[in-house]
């Protein structure tokens, strides 16, 4: 995230940098919709999953900065699956620090899939990242701090969404991010993506009958058909289900 901020604020890429210790803080003025606004940026340090004393120290510093947050940029490296998997831990930490009276529904979240220039090493594809973000009502952008791709667009959209939040009395407008698909569809796509075999993909036990396989297939086909499902990754999930059914029926008499 430090490289993204430097690319945006300083218009340059820093290939080597020291890890953020505590909090990096910056102030900048930007023009959004004919308004000049002052933006306070807090660059937080530390990995919420790293089991070290340094992790605890980082968290003690971070927890003072969650209160009164209006917008959050969640960044992961598309070439490191563990950084994508850590997004849930970041959300959990923020929710805990905000406490029972904090309302994360009134914060603008942007998910930033960074390092898209490293195509050969990519391990989290766009549909997986977009599904995670949009199923939660978060904005999603693909960026490269090295080339600058997507950086300005991401920040401008982020600021515009925060202005909408402020103009709406501090509440995130319902129309700020349109999901357009159900939790059931999103969960099905994730399960299919992570399935270990065709049985698991269709949600049937090994040795199931033709009728059981066909019944499971029809349920998923209706749920995920590209003509009716707009969730990211639905087309690939639908094709995988079709192939899984074909493979299983070949071996069932």
Automatic annotation (TrEMBL):
Key words of the record: GTP-binding, Nucleotide-binding, Nucleus
Subcellular location: Nucleus
InterPro entries: DnaJ_domain, J_dom_sf, P-loop_NTPase, Rab, Small_GTP-bd, Small_GTPase
Gene3D superfamilies, per database record: DnaJ domain, P-loop containing nucleotide triphosphate hydrolases
Gene Ontology CC: one annotated term: nucleus
Main localization category: nucleus
Domain (J) ranges: 197-253
GO molecular function: GTP binding; GTPase activity
Coiled coil ranges: none
Similarity annotation: Belongs to the small GTPase superfamily. Rab family.
Stored PANTHER family: RAS-RELATED PROTEIN RAB
Protein name, UniProt field: DnaJ subfamily C member 27
Organism of origin: Balearica regulorum gibbericeps (East African grey crowned-crane)
């Amino acid at each position: 995230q430090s490289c993204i901020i430097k690319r945006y604020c300083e218009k340059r890429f820093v290939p080597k940098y020291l890890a953020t210790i505590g909090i990096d803080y910056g102030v900048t003025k930007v023009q959004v919709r004919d308004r000049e606004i002052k933006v306070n940026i807090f660059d937080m340090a530390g990995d919420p999953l790293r089991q070290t004393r340094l992790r605890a120290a980082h968290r003690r510093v971070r927890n003072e900065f969650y209160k009164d947050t209006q917008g959050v940029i969640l960044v992961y490296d598309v070439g490191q699956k563990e950084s994508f998997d850590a997004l849930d831990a970041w959300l959990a930490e923020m929710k805990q620090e905000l406490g029972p009276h904090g309302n994360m529904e009134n914060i603008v979240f942007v998910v930033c899939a960074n390092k898209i220039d490293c195509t050969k090493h990519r391990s989290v594809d766009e549909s997986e990242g977009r599904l995670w973000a949009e199923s939660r009502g978060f904005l999603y952008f693909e960026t490269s701090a090295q080339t600058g791709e997507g950086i300005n667009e991401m920040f401008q959209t982020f600021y515009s969404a925060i202005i909408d939040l402020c103009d709406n009395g501090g509440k995130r407008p319902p129309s700020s991010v349109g999901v357009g698909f159900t939790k059931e569809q999103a969960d099905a796509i994730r399960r299919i993506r992570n399935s270990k075999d065709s049985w698991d993909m269709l949600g049937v036990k090994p040795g199931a009958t033709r009728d059981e396989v066909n019944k499971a297939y029809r349920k998923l086909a209706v749920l995920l058909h590209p003509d009716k499902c707009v969730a990211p990754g639905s087309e690939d999930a639908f094709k995988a289900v079709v192939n899984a059914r074909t493979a299983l029926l070949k071996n069932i008499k």
